[in-house]
Amino acid sequence: MQRLARRGRDLHCFCRNFLNPTTRRSTNTSPSDYSLIADPPDSDSAVLVEANACSRTVILNRPSALNALNTSMYSFFLLVSVGSIEGNKLQKLYKSWEEDPGIGFVVMKGSGRGFCAGGDIVSIHDMIRKGNIEECKEFFWTVYNFMYLVATYIKPHVAILNGITMGGGAGVSIPGTFRVATDKTTFATPETLIGFHPDAGASFHLSHLPGYLGEYLALTGDMLNGVEMVACGLATHYLPSANVPAIEYCLKNLITDDPSGIETCLQKYSDRDYPSNASVLRRTETINKCFRHDTVEEIIDALESEAVKTNDGWCNSILKKLKYASPLSLKVALRSIREGRFQTLDQCLIREYRMSSQAVAGRISCDFYEGVRARLVDKDFAPKWDPPSLECVTQDMVDQYFSPLGPLEPDLDLPKKAFM
């Protein structure tokens, strides 16, 4: 019960902080402790870098917002100049580290209580309101490119997921070599609840989960904890959060570029745990039975039938989530996961960029704008979805999300690299 209560509090923190446009000055990190990437020494920096013996540690540094990616943090993924400071941004740094024989591996972590709660979509909502659609597309363009860089990185990449890990947070960590989850880790893809679709490579890593767990997570937005992430393969290691300082110290002093040496360090402090009896992973038979169907309507019918037959309150709670979500997003998300099962990560990212561009442009539907408004801006939790029901969602609407962009809107351009 304590674990379930903690997961409920984590979700509350996510809803309150993940997309909160207000950023407060951090008081628990001193700029003198780290080297700032681009910001002047007297300012807050959304991303910090620490030089270690044989590695570099990247710290996502918006702790008051669970390190949600905002316009400031997104700028670190761009290769541009900021004022008189050369744009030696994170993507450029990653590439230079890859070529530096003195750097063996890279570690990424978050400040405070979260790893990364994903994108600050309230700020994206504000850009849509102001008509800055191209700026929104640039967000997705740059961060998807960075995710692909992590996925194809030659050197080992370690992400310490000690806290909320959602959306873009999963996108910049799951493609890497090692993903360390803890008892404080909470993972989810709740995009259908705000009229969007699971992106940031989610259609790839969710579609490769056992059975139909990926479809379930994509459509419902349900959460997994650290133990569950390891059990289904989203994370590679699990450890108590009390061991995080020790494992960070071990990594800082490690002299190697060999993944096996890093594995030894991680295993030294890792723990073995198993999903609780209340875990959704104990319901794989029901999930596979209900979410294997080809359409959202059939999935809902199967859940309703199961609820009547078993008198299981869990089925009713899942139905409530599905009936709250955007009908169009549900259909788009299901098709995205199904296509992702037969695509490589780069193909998924290119397709997701098309889908994200359609969502922010609002040419098919304004559900994304409306979903963020209802849940995170006005907070009336009463979105007016368009179309308002599953039966009103046409096949043409869904197809448009997956269609190539116009001749003046190029597809996502990823570098030609062998997928690692």
Automatic annotation (TrEMBL):
It catalyses: 3-hydroxy-2-methylpropanoyl-CoA + H2O = 3-hydroxy-2-methylpropanoate + CoA + H(+). Belongs to the enoyl-CoA hydratase/isomerase family. The lineage of its organism: Eukaryota, Viridiplantae, Streptophyta, Embryophyta, Tracheophyta. Residues 56-402 form the Enoyl-CoA hydratase/isomerase domain. InterPro entries: ClpP/crotonase-like_dom_sf, ECH_dom, HIBYL-CoA-H. Its EC number is 3.1.2.4. NCBIfam families: PRK05617.1. Keywords: Hydrolase. This is 3-hydroxyisobutyryl-CoA hydrolase. Pathway: Amino-acid degradation; L-valine degradation. PANTHER family: 3-HYDROXYISOBUTYRYL-COA HYDROLASE-LIKE PROTEIN 1, MITOCHONDRIAL, 3-HYDROXYISOBUTYRYL-COA HYDROLASE-RELATED. GO terms for molecular function: 3-hydroxyisobutyryl-CoA hydrolase activity. Hydrolyzes 3-hydroxyisobutyryl-CoA (HIBYL-CoA), a saline catabolite. Has high activity toward isobutyryl-CoA. Could be an isobutyryl-CoA dehydrogenase that functions in valine catabolism. It comes from the Eukaryota. One of its GO terms (biological process) is L-valine catabolic process.
